[in-house]
Amino acid sequence: MPRYDQDFADYLRDGGFRVFDMNEAHRQDHATFNLCLEDYKRRYWIGHYGPAGNHFFAYSLKNVVVDWLEPKPRTYLGEGISGESRFRAPTSPATCPTLRRPNPFSCNSIAVAARNPVTLRSKCHLSL
């Protein structure tokens, strides 16, 4: 059965537009299951996307959007297996230059529940 919006989807692809087609993502995902369409839909929909549907949508879209971005976010530069890990923690906690002590508001530090609740340990690098 042809898609109701096939002409529009073809127009966007043929026109060189950057397109993310969620219908195509679902078609490919459904092909990996041995389920009828109604059973497949119950995995993701509860009248709208449920938690599993939201997860599927986000992970279907993520790599497409990253491909569109230039420059790439630090976490998607492809470092890791053959080079240094992209999740390598720095050797010291993030330090606030004004206070000259660990910065509790730094995006690459987390508070560690220890004897001193403001002790910070660098955990990962975040980039937006």
Poorly predicted tracts of residues: 82-93, 103-128
What is the overall silhouette? globular
What's the arrangement of strands in the largest beta sheet? Answer: 1-2
Strand proportion, as a percent range, falls in: 5-15%
Radius of gyration: 22 Å
Summarize the structure in words.
With 128 residues, the protein is mainly alpha-helical. It folds into 2 domains: 6-68, no CATH class; 82-128, no CATH class. Helices cover 35% and strands 8% of the residues. It is built from 4 helices and 4 strands. The chain has helices at 6-14, 22-31, 37-44, 51-68, and strands at 95-96, 101-102, 109-111, 120-122. Strands 1-2 form a two-stranded antiparallel ribbon. The chain has a two-stranded antiparallel sheet with strand order 3-4. It is globular, with a radius of gyration of 22 Å. The protein starts with 5 loop residues before the first helix and ends in a 6-residue tail after the last strand.
Brief overview, please?
It is built from 4 helices and 4 strands. The protein is mostly helical and 128 residues long.
Provide tags for this entry.
128 residues, disordered C terminus, 2 domains, mainly alpha, single chain, two-stranded antiparallel sheet, 4 helices
SSE layout:
Layout: H1 6-14, H2 22-31, H3 37-44, H4 51-68, E1 95-96, E2 101-102, E3 109-111, E4 120-122
Antiparallel strand pairs: 1-2, 3-4
